[in-house]
Amino acid sequence: MKKIYFLVIGLFFLNVAIAQKQAIKITNLKTAKEKIIQENKRIKVKTLHGSEIKGRFMIEDDTIISIDGVRVDLIDIEELKRNPLLTSILTSGFLIYGGILVAGSATIAGIFVDSTAFLLTLPAAGMIYAGIKSPNFNKNHKKDKGWRFEIVIKPD
Questions:
Q1: What is the mean pLDDT of the chain?
Q2: Which domain holds residue 115?
Q3: What is the superkingdom listed in this entry's lineage (predicted)?
Q4: Residues 57 and 123 in one domain
């Protein structure tokens, strides 16, 4: 019985020692406002070189993160934004399918009712294009607006 007791206690302490998660802390230098994005969340990053990288991020060390296999140094990040999958799917799906419905109904109305209903295909094309571009309504954290990025260890 004592062996099982020591095994359970030993596993508990091992779990506490290992169960620390790393995260990116975003701090506004002007207002001292802080936001924390945990590791393995979806983000969208724009670097100083102009490249845009989207995907889940992993922290490699104190200054480098990896987004879907692409290594990015925190110094090279110009903008950082959360990019949740559910929001991306819902907004893209709503705009694309809504645009298809508007285009289809405009075509049917243009054929059978009035030819000016064909003009509704223009906003439908805009909706489909906006859905393909996948809008992201989350706040953008830019370095030149006073945001600083750093890696922190967040205990469970």
A1: 84
A2: 87-132
A3: Bacteria
A4: no
- Phi (first) and psi of residue 48, to 5 degrees: -65, -25
Distance CA 156, CA 39 (A): 13
Q: Is 2 contained in some domain?
A: no
3-class SS string, the chain: CHHHHHHHHHHHHHHHHHCEEEEEEEEECCCCCEEEEECCCEEEEEECCCCEEEEEEEECCCCEEEECCEEEEHHHEEEEEECCHHHHHHHHHHHHHHHHHHHHHHHHHHHHCCHHHHHHHHHHHHHHHHHHCCCCCCCCEEHHHCEEEEEEEEEC
- Does some domain include residue 71? yes
Cα torsion through 38, 82, 61, 149, rounded to 10: -110
Q: Taking the model in full, what pTM does it have?
A: 0.66
Residue 128: inside a domain, yes or no? yes
Q: How many domains does one find in the chain?
A: 2
How confident is residue 19, by pLDDT bands cut at 50, 70 and 90?
Answer: low
**Residue 16 domain-assigned (yes or no):** no
Per-residue pLDDT reduced to its tens digit, 127-142 = 898 888 877 777 788 8
